[in-house]
From TrEMBL:
The keyword Repeat does not apply. Its EC number is 2.1.1.244. Belongs to the methyltransferase superfamily. NTM1 family. GO terms for cellular component: cytoplasm. Keywords: Methyltransferase, S-adenosyl-L-methionine, Transferase. It comes from Caenorhabditis angaria. GO terms for molecular function: N-terminal protein N-methyltransferase activity. It catalyses: N-terminal L-alanyl-L-prolyl-L-lysyl-[protein] + 3 S-adenosyl-L-methionine = N-terminal N,N,N-trimethyl-L-alanyl-L-prolyl-L-lysyl-[protein] + 3 S-adenosyl-L-homocysteine + 3 H(+); N-terminal L-seryl-L-prolyl-L-lysyl-[protein] + 3 S-adenosyl-L-methionine = N-terminal N,N,N-trimethyl-L-seryl-L-prolyl-L-lysyl-[protein] + 3 S-adenosyl-L-homocysteine + 3 H(+); N-terminal L-prolyl-L-prolyl-L-lysyl-[protein] + 2 S-adenosyl-L-methionine = N-terminal N,N-dimethyl-L-prolyl-L-prolyl-L-lysyl-[protein] + 2 S-adenosyl-L-homocysteine + 2 H(+). This is Alpha N-terminal protein methyltransferase 1. GO terms for biological process: methylation. S-adenosyl-L-methionine binds at G67, R72, L116, Q117, Q132.
Amino acid sequence: MNSNISNPHTVYENAENYWSRCSQDVDGMLGGFAKLHQPDILLSKTFLNNLKKKGIAENFDYALDCGAGIGRVTKHLLMPFFKTVDMVDVIEELIVRSSEYIGTDDGIGEKFVEGLQTFEPPLGKYDMIWIQWVSGHLTDDDLKEFFQRCIKGIKPQGTICLKDNVVNTANPLFDSEDNSWTRPEDLVLEIADAAGLRLVAKNLQTGFPKEMYPVKMFAFKPKNPVTEDD
Ligand SMILES: C[S@@+](CC[C@H](N)C(=O)[O-])C[C@H]1O[C@@H](n2cnc3c(N)ncnc32)[C@H](O)[C@@H]1O
């Protein structure tokens, strides 16, 4: 199925059904591949440390974890870097479960229950918006528009990071189990560009099984940072 369909209602509904039935643990968040957790977090930490070293990410007050689920990325990646982390996910039960999984509310800000296809991050709030293993749930148009709302949600020096599987095929591949698309890297970058983002860093995840799709981390900044008059 093409990733720029104009009426994705059924796809979104099927995805919600899938995620509302997944196990509410790391294995469930990683589609049965809990062994990916450690190398994933390790390489994401290295990526963030490099953004810090290069001065690409300067402030670490507020982050937003998109498609946060039970808060695996919030707990192990974002909380060690940021004073406060907000979370958003379309499945309420996963967000509710996150309190127990994370084990503390210190450092957790707001928890939003909404699909990213409609979610509007609060204006100018975040130093970083992290979008991991969820962008494939949005159509091309909805991803572009979500990126545009993220641009308004970050502070002037803020950064938007995307971590996701990519394919080496010419077209996106649709997974009819969880109802998501895996896009070629070029398409991801094209959508980000169309949304008004420029790529400032990228890296390839290593340490994953060979048979998996490659996983890439991208950091973006707005081409035109939002000013107070916008
Ligand atoms: C593969 S899991 C990844 C969870 C988390 N990012 C991680 O890496 O541990 C996908 C998550 O995206 C959420 N999700 C799926 N479709 C979504 C949508 N349209 N808007 C927001 N969240 C969505 C699911 O509920 C699930 O928590």
